[in-house]
Each structure stands twice: as C-alpha cells, then as structure tokens.
Write a structure and sequence with these properties.
This protein has 3 domains: 2-191, no CATH class; 197-331 and 366-395, Rossmann fold (3-Layer(aba) Sandwich), CATH 3.40.50.10470; 400-442, no CATH class. Helix content is 52%, strand content 10%. The chain is built from 17 helices and 12 strands. The protein has helices at residues 2-16, 23-40, 48-66, 71-104, 111-125, 134-139, 149-160, 163-196, 199-202, 216-226, 244-253, 266-269, 295-304, 342-346, 390-395, 400-413, 430-442; strands at residues 208-211, 232-236, 257-261, 275-279, 282-283, 289-292, 309-312, 367-370, 377-380, 383-385, 416-417, 423-424. The strands form 3 sheets. Strands 3-2-1-4-7-9-10 form a 7-stranded mixed β-sheet. It has a 3-stranded antiparallel β-sheet with strand order 5-6-8, with helices on one face. A two-stranded antiparallel ribbon has the order 11-12. It is globular, with a radius of gyration of 26 Å. The protein starts with a helix and ends with a helix. It comes from Populus alba x Populus x berolinensis. It holds the Pfam family IF-2B. This is Translation initiation factor eIF2B subunit beta.
Length: 443
C-alpha cells in the first residue's frame, strides 16, 4: 500500500511536529486515515477480519508513537478495531442463521440431525468477547466478537458448497466496516451539536457560569443555552498564551454577557459562580480528566465552595486507559518562550564559569489531571453520566480483546521473579485490578 503509507507518513509528521491542535481534529484525521487504509487494503478470502485488525494496529502504533500525549489517536484506533470485531461477528451470525434456516427447510433431516446441526452452530459461534453492550442494544448494532468466526464460516461454506455466498459475505464485511467508520466520523463532526442539546437542562436564568480553557464544545454549549436562558459567563484568560481571550470575544459576538478574569482570580470569584463548565483533553477510565494546566485548581476551588463541576466531552475523548498506566503520558512541556523571551532568558545565564549553565529554569506544562472525585457530571453526545459510570460506558465502545492483553501483561509484571529468587510485588492501584477483573469477566 504505497499510497496509503504516504498518507500515514504525512499524519505522523503532523503529529510529531504538533501541527494538529485539538482532540476533535486529531480524531477526525485518524478516523479518515484508517478509513483509507481499510478501503485500499487487499484482503484474502479467509481471515479477513484478522487482516484488517493487523493493518489497523500497525498504522495505529505509528500514530500513537508520533504523539503519545494525544490520547484521541489511540482512542480512535481502538474504536475502529472494535468496529471490525463487531461487524465480523455480525457477518458470522447472519451466515450461521442462514445455515440454520436452510437446515430447517430440509424435510429429509430427522429431529436428531436438526438438533445436532443446531448444536454445531452454537459451538461454532462460541462465546462473544463480552455480553451485549448497552450502547449496542440501543443502537441495534451487533455484539462484539472475536475475529476467528470468519475463518470458521469460510470452512463451513466450503463444506456446504456455498462459495458464492462466502465471497458475498467477505465483501460485505469490508463494506460494513467502512460504513461504520463513516458513522464514527459523522459522530465526531456532530458531537458539539449533540452536547449542546443538553445545555438548557443545566443552565438556568440569572446564573453565573465559569469556564476555563478554550473549547469549541463549551462555546457551542453556552451559546445553545443562550437561546432560552439569560446568564453571565466568567472566562479565565488562560495564561501564558491567553487563548481564552478569543473565546471571550466569540461569546460577546454571540450576545453573551462575558467577564474576563485572570487565572489567579478564580478562587476569589468562585463564590459568585453557580456552575463551572469546562472542556477537557481526555476522559480516563476511572472518571478522571486531562485538561489545560490549572484546571485542577479550578476543580478544587469549585469543591471548596460546593459549585458543580461539569465536564463536556465527546465520546471520542473517552480513553480506556487509567492515568497510572505506564503507557499513558499525562503531560508534556511547552516551549519556554511562551513565558519568557529568549533575550530575557539569556540574561539569566551564568557566564562566569564558562559552562553556560542557566540559573533560571522555565517549566511550562501543558496539561493538568483532575481526579474523578472533583467532577460532578459528564455531558457527552449520548447523554449525561456520573464519573463512576465512565468505565462501563467505555466498555461499550472498546473491545476487551484490545485491552485485555495489555492489562494482563501489566498484571503479570506485578508477580515477577528476581535473580535472587525473591518475589517482589510492586504497587498496583486497586482501580486497575478492578478493571482487569472486569475485563476478564467480560471475556
């Protein structure tokens, strides 16, 4: 796939150079790239699902390595893998139902033969990787299943002389996967409008709303509430880049009464606020969030004054990982020039010893982690949820097959043998053990 590899390299370069800003833009580019990879991939007649999964995993590893802190990339890759497994199970289920119906229509079969065929179908289907998800039941989508069913169906069709039907099902799998990825892209594009529909239910007349961070989701949320509610907005300016000045201008242009405050004034103003509404970078499996630096300070101030802390986020920001996972990079350092000019920085160099060692160090982190106990409620494009429910919601969007391997690997490292034959058990957060047990029960 030389043409596809060029597209992959282009996106990898953009991610590595931080040319893509925002989780939504990153998620869209990732989903569109994976759609191109799937559509241009030449797959064999057997083991098609495995071929698609391996191709998506290979591309996903390159994208994640280019920018590990952009968790939306890994989210979309795992979402597409989940789609492939669900569509593969749907094709397998429909084919097996066809076999059952054809067996039932044969008058020459005895009752015992029919029962034997029904048992064969049940054994062939095997247990799914997890029970039907709430999201799957609501959307009437097939349940998730492992990819080995397609190869079994291929063998069964050969035994029944159904080669033509088998080819149809093979092409149907790829078509259904592309259709599902297109639906995922549409969901990402429309997540702001879906979230904004809940604004009127949360915001009331004469309230004061505090927001922190430059988020298009928050902007559309507040503007949607303005259609039926009259309220004021406090916007923290967002030093050192002051990106929220643009948000304040947008809100004023939409007719919202807006007050711009400094970040350090949040605690002083929070007692006048009725609700805090923020957008985030990612939502972790334990219900914690990654947001712009300083967000934890706002969350602590909100809890101190019993102010609801509302997080608005699309489902593409739901990350199936925990913040303490080794593969999760929670932060990165921005350029020091956002705080100091290089001329000012050079004046603080120690030239007397000739080493050029700076006496002044500049630390400019990009993100902040907010634990789940500081979050009041999540507003997503499919509804509102408590932080304690996020792990179950995440299980509806990701396959246990893509999460269980890494969880088991980490769990096994907790019981490793040392050269002196002593066993050491490193610290393992109990939430991760609970999540591992949850995945094992679902498998």
């Amino acid at each position: 796939m030389p043409g596809t590899q060029i597209l992959v390299n282009e996106l990898v370069t953009k991610l590595r150079k931080r040319k893509v800003e925002g989780s939504q833009a990153t998620a869209l580019l990732t989903a569109e790239l994976l759609r191109s990879v799937i559509s241009q991939l030449k797959v064999p007649q057997t083991n098609q699902a495995e071929t698609l999964i391996e191709a998506v995993k290979s591309v996903g590893e390159q994208l994640v390595a280019a920018n590990p802190v952009e968790l939306a990339v890994g989210n979309i890759v795992k979402r597409v893998l989940h789609v492939i497994r669900e569509e593969d199970f749907s094709v397998a289920t429909n084919a097996l139902r066809g076999l059952v119906s054809s067996a039932g229509g044969d008058n020459r079969d005895t009752a015992e033969q029919k029962d034997f065929r029904a048992q064969d179908v049940a054994v062939a289907a095997g247990p799914p990787s997890r029970p039907p998800s709430l999201h799957s039941l609501l959307d009437r989508t097939p349940d998730s299943a492992i990819a080995r069913h397609s190869s079994y169906i291929g063998d069964s069709f050969e035994g029944k002389g159904k080669s033509a039907d088998r080819n149809t099902e093979i092409w149907k799998l790829k078509h259904d996967v592309i259709r599902a990825v297109n639906e995922l892209i549409e969901d990402i594009n429309s997540c702001h409008e879906q979230i904004a529909e809940h604004a009127v239910e949360l915001i009331h007349h004469n309230e004061i709303i505090l927001t922190f961070g430059r988020s298009r989701t928050v902007r559309e949320f507040l503007c949607a509430a303005k259609e039926k509610r009259s309220f004021r907005v406090f916007v923290a300016e967002g030093a050192p880049k002051y990106q929220r000045h643009a948000l304040a201008k947008d809100l004023v242009a939409r007719g919202l009464q807006t007050t711009l405050i400094t970040d350090s004034a949040v605690f002083a103003m929070i007692s006048r606020v009725n609700m805090v509404v923020v957008g985030v970078h990612a939502v972790m499996a334990n219900g914690g969030v990654l947001g712009p630096v300083g967000l934890n300070m706002v969350a602590l101030a909100a809890r101190k004054h019993a102010v609801p802390f509302v997080v608005v986020a699309g489902t593409h920001k739901l990350c199936p990982l925990y913040p303490q996972n080794p593969q999760v990079l929670l932060n990165e350092m921005r350029c020091p020039s956002e705080l100091l000019q290089y001329g000012e920085f050079s004046d603080c160099m120690d030239f007397s010893i000739g080493s050029g060692t700076p006496l002044l160090n500049v630390v400019n982190p990009a993100f902040d982690y907010v634990p789940p106990e500081l979050v009041s409620v999540f507003i997503t494009d499919i509804g509102g949820y408590n932080p304690s429910f996020m792990h179950r919601l995440i299980a509806d969007y990701y396959s246990a097959d893509d999460l269980l391997a890494k969880a088991v690997e980490k769990f096994s490292r907790c019981f490793c043998s040392l050269p002196d034959s002593k066993i050491t058990i490193p610290f393992l957060v109990f939430s991760e053990i609970d999540h591992l047990v949850f995945l094992l029960l679902q498998a």
